[in-house]
Each structure stands twice: as structure tokens, then as C-alpha cells.
Amino acid sequence: MIKYATTALCFLFSFAVQALEVQPGVFQGTVQEIQQAEKKFDFTRQTWVGFLPGNDEHDPLHKVRRRSTLIIHHEDPKADKHSVIVWGHGMGGFHKFAQNMYPQLQELAKRGKSFTLIEPEMPWSCNASNIDGRPAWTQKGSFKLLVDSASAKFPVPSGKQMVLVVGGHSRGGKFIKDAAVRGGLCDMNPAWVLWSDATYSRWFDSSWNACLKNVSERVEVFYLRGTETGTFTRRLSGTQRFDFVHLHPLGLPWYHGKVGDNVLLLSKFLK
Q1: What range defines the domain where residue 177 resides?
Q2: Residue 12 falls within a domain, yes or no?
Q3: Which residue of 63, 71, 153, 260 is most buried, as measured by CB atoms within 10 A?
């Protein structure tokens, strides 16, 4: 009996402290940032960073000519659902793991959530140059290809319902827009689309008209009052099916970065 208990504990411990798996060729600055973040948090997980179909386009403006994808996978045996969260980072933000994503994921784990975070590096990351005007997805279906490729590495645990959550912070709104317009988001039929102070320009409008008004079960929008990200609400108010869009206007003490650092925890979907 003691032998079996010891074996089980060793298995659990090995899963909890499993080393970051790095595919050869990933920019070393990114690897170091993830390793530093990994040391600060203790929820059970498997973490992988590397190149995946759908986000491995040749990028001559990137330091290693290819953009990486980070996957953080956590299983809770008691949860009946498993959320696959595909997240578009903001300006330069692919390297800011410790400041924004890891604390939120640790809290979700404490709440008994089971999840896989998929965070593709975007053309506006800290590892790329000439970032203005560059699209997140350039090929039709590339978003779906990325999600399918990442999900194959860490499949949804047997017996759990898979729920697809797509979100983005700041310029991550362009990530959502490009995925809706050309990247295959419409084919994925996400259950929840989450905007984290990300409704700049007409990104929301373009996403809405492309497919969000038809395929998403819920859309949740956090924005700062009196700023550019709030102007879309006046345009949205006249559209149909407004009832399934949840708007969250925020004022002080909230600011742009604080929204991104907490949005997964604020979301109704992940309560």
C-alpha cells in the first residue's frame, strides 16, 4: 500500500515540476523569460514553446525569422470542462509571461479550472521589428491550423467537454479581427470571445460582420471609459443580437495594463 501511494505521489510531483520543453531554434531571450516565470508559480502544468503549423510563417523581421507559440496545459481531474484559451498578446507582450498570464492561470487552477493556454507570438512582439500594419494571420485557415496543431500536442482530457475561448489584449484585438476575417476563426465556432481593452479602430466591427454575430455563443468586452476602445459601443448599439454581448466599462483605478493582467479572472465565463 505504501509502495502504491509513493508511486502515485512521485507521478503527481513529476507532473508538477516537469521542465519547460523547448523546440530547437526558439529565440533564447524568449526561453529565458519563460524559464524565469516558470520558477515563480507552483500549479501543476506542462509547458511547451516552439514552432507550429499556422504560426510558423517565414518572418524576415523576426530575430530568428520564425514566430513561436507558447502552450501551458493544466488538468484538473474534478472539472467536467476543459477550456482551450487562444490568446493574442498586445504590443511587445509575448515575453511578459510572469506579469500577466502566469498569475491568472495559477488562480484559475486554484479555482478548479482545467485549461490549455495557446499563445502564438504575433508580428508585433518584442522579438520583431517594423510591427505597424502587419496582420496577425495572412493565410486563410491559418488560425484553425494553429489551434488544431497545438491541441494535438496536449489533447483535451478524456471525458471532458472542450470549450474554445478566443481572446486578446490591446493589439490582440487585431489578432481576433484577422482570425475572423481570414484566419479560420469562423470555422472554429468559439464558445466565448473575450476583448481585453482591445476594441481599437474598427477591429470589433470587422470581426462582428465577418462571423462573430453568427458563430459565437458569447462575446465579452472590457474597455476603459472615455477612451478609444469605448467608441465602438455607440456603433454596436444598433446591431442585432446585442443581447449576447456583455459590456464591461471600467474606470479608475483600472488602467490599460491592469485590465490585461486580470481579464481572465474578471471574465464571467471563467468564474
Answers
A1: 19-266
A2: no
A3: 260
pTM of the model: 0.91
Q: Is residue 195 part of a domain?
A: yes
Residue-wise pLDDT tens digits, 149-162: 999 999 999 889 99
Q: Which of 173, 244, 240 is nearest to 206 (CA)?
A: 173
Question: 8 lies in a domain?
Answer: no
Q: Cell 486554484, residue?
A: 110
Q: What are the residues whose beta carbons fall under 8 Å from the beta carbon of 1, sequence distance 6 or more?
A: none
Residue 198 cell numbers, joined: 482591445
Nearest to 173 by CA among 196, 147, 142: 196
Whether 30 maps to a domain, the answer reads: yes
SS (H, E, C) the chain: CHHHHHHHHHHHHHHHCCCCEECCCCCHHHHHHHHHHHCCCCCCCEEEEECCCCCCCCCCCECCCCCCEEEEEECCCCCCEEEEEEEECCCEHHHCHHHHHHHHHHHHHHCCCCEEEEEECCCCECCECCCCCCCCCCCCCHHHHHHHHHHHHCCCCCCCEEEEEEEEECCHHHHHHHHHHHHCHHHHCCCEEEEECCCCCCHHHHHHHHHHHHHCCEEEEEEECCCHHHCHHHHHCCCCCHHHEEEEEECCCCCHHHHHHHHHHHCCCCC
Count of domains observed in the chain: 1
Residue of 233, 58, 48, 19 lying closest to 138 (CA atoms): 58
CA of residue 243 relative to chain centroid, distance:
25
Span 209-237, pLDDT tens digits: 888 888 777 899 999 998 999 888 767 76
